[in-house]
Design brief:
The chain is α+β, with helices and mostly antiparallel strands and about 220 residues long. The chain is built from five helices and eight strands. It has a six-stranded antiparallel barrel. The protein has a two-stranded antiparallel ribbon with strand order 2-3.
């Protein structure tokens, strides 16, 4: 009769105990799955994107302060020598040297509106008197808005930079003469002044110290 060494028996008992422990742990895990118990996870952070704001209310409030700016300038034209050629100040310097083409654009654009007779095709025909007319003529039009109730308004520098006469058309269609106060080509801003004696609705500037990165700015 063979008797197993005591060390062998101790090792076997340890292996059986380990196997039993694994079986018990597996049963517990299976029970957790079977009963629907799930591990607890951290809640995901959800950020709702804000809706794009509507500026309709702002536009409605400031529209009485918004104006149209019409600009005129004196344009020295050369006399008509019959060739139909005009100098560069008439804006035709880039056209080909074609008398008929230049005459067409000159009449189409209305140079000489202060005089000239009516042609059979409905276009104006201009003579020597019209070419030398140095009355201010429309050269640009833009928009702006009042920034004070006494008639100061802001517009773009590129609108007024060539002008010698300025007219402001208010929201209700009233036309008012304006004078140029100052310009800043770097920021493309200009300031005009209307001396009408009346109070104007104007746009007040907000406190820029309260503006944060990401805020809407109008």
């Amino acid at each position: 009769m063979n008797v197993a060494p005591s060390s062998y028996l101790r090792t076997r008992k340890r292996l059986l105990a380990a196997a039993a422990s694994l079986a018990i742990a597996g049963a517990i895990g299976f029970g957790a799955v079977a009963t629907g118990t799930a591990p607890v996870l951290a809640d995901a952070v959800r950020v709702e994107a804000p809706q794009v704001p509507s500026f309709a209310d702002v536009v409605e409030r400031v529209s009485p302060a918004v104006v149209s700016v019409r600009v005129k300038a004196k344009i020295q034209s050369t006399a008509d020598d019959g060739s139909g050629q005009m100098d560069d100040e008439d804006g035709l310097g880039n056209l080909p040297d074609n008398p008929q083409l230049r005459r067409f654009f000159r009449e189409f654009r209305g140079f000489g509106d202060q005089g000239g007779d009516q042609g059979p095709n409905g276009m104006r025909r201009f003579g020597h008197r019209d070419r030398n007319n140095d009355q201010p003529r429309p050269v640009a039009q833009g928009s702006g808005f009042f920034i004070s109730d006494d008639g100061y308004l802001v517009t773009n520098n590129h609108v007024v930079e060539e002008g010698t006469a300025f007219t402001v058309v208010t929201n209700d269609g009233k036309e008012l003469d304006a004078k140029l106060i100052g310009t800043d080509p770097r920021t493309d801003l200009a300031v005009l002044k209307v001396d009408d004696g009346n109070k104007f609705t104007y746009v007040d500037f907000a406190d820029d110290s309260k503006v944060r990165v990401g805020d809407w700015v109008v």
